[in-house]
Amino acid sequence: MVLAAEQVEDFDGLSRARSLNELVTSQAALNEERQTLTPETVKALVDSRLPWMLVPTEAGGRGATLIDTVRVIEELAFADASTGWCYMVTAVSSGLVAAFVGDDAVKVLYADEDRPFMAGMTGPRGTADMVEGGFQCGGKYSFGSGARHANWIKSGAMVRSGGEPVTDSHGVPAQIAFVVPADNVELQDNWHVLGLKGTGSVDYSVPAQFVPEDFTFSLNEVQQRRGRATFQIGVKGMAAAGHGAVALGMGRHALHEIARISREKVRPGLPSVADRELFKHDFSFHDAALRSARAFTWETIAESEAHVESGRPLTDTDLYRLRQACTYSHKVAAEAIRFAYGWAGTTSLREPSDLGRVLRDLSGATQHFYVDPSSLVDAAPSALRSY
């Protein structure tokens, strides 16, 4: 039995996220120390029902818009980057899976109280051999963010028949995403990194196993079965929106911290940091830059949603704008975080330090594929034509 959908008027995702702020913040250092979200953090997210706000109402979710979801991602990342990151992965993954898999899979995945806390890596690093009723899937993957506390794992694979690659109707190698229980996956203990430690983004292996066709969906062609048109934005576009939101939350956290510290920090013979002219100038600049990046990101996401809701598929220009906004948000947030860390002096150097942690988390976020500088190069022709 699929759970009844949340009543629209009873679900305010952003308010629910803000209500978790104190708990999530209190667990941030432990998330980093344990290299995965604490049970307290996971329970708070599950109890809030936030991980399933993007899930279509037909599958028992909230059927929220992408713009509402990324606002929640930003709010949770403001409290703790690793929590915001893991929430992004499970919220987007749970929504996409619910929109595209078959009816039998929905009945299993979203039944009763056992809803999926999903993780995994959708890049098609594995193989999916066509067999009767589905696929024989397996492979080795990196960056399984949230895998240590997930109950379902979503992964990508190249489709084969008789050991040979299969192409789609456009002559492109066919790719699918498939979902398996977390118990069927082998995790490696190799998430030894500088930043975003709490995400537990370990490598993992999926031993070869049968996956019914209902538990798969095409990564080549958008074949949506349920839910709002938002999902026509696709995996890459939705992921770019989510990553940008995490960066914005991190940047906002840094400015929040330095605003607090600056009022108390005084060096011998000098006024408080908050009263120094150079600090005031630079704080105003980074505040404006971060707010501008946020407005641009939200505008780009909202426009993309409006386009698909009106029945117009996204163009390459639309997708480039989403990638552009994502990369730009990371650059602006990175500058704000470095500014805050520098002005905090030894306060940010000594542990425990929120600014020290957010600087480390930044080092992880800016290394992601979605933030590669080439995304701005790719967006340039579209941007030039717009003038």
Q: Which class of secondary structure composition applies to the elements?
A: alpha+beta
- The CATH architecture of the largest domain is Up-down Bundle
- CATH first level of the largest domain: Mainly Alpha
User: Biggest sheet, open or closed, and with what strands and sense?
Assistant: 9 strands, mixed
Description:
With 387 residues, the chain is α+β, with helices and mostly antiparallel strands. The protein folds into three domains: 8-109, Butyryl-Coa Dehydrogenase, subunit A, domain 1 (Orthogonal Bundle); 119-218, Beta Barrel (Butyryl-CoA Dehydrogenase, subunit A, domain 2); 229-385, Butyryl-CoA Dehydrogenase, subunit A, domain 3 (Up-down Bundle), CATH 1.20.140.10. The chain is built from twelve helices and nine strands. β2 and β3 form a beta hairpin. α1 runs parallel beside α4 and α7 (234-264) runs parallel beside α9. The longest helix has 33 residues, at 277-309. The radius of gyration is 21 Å and the shape is globular. Mean pLDDT is 94; it is low at 1-9.
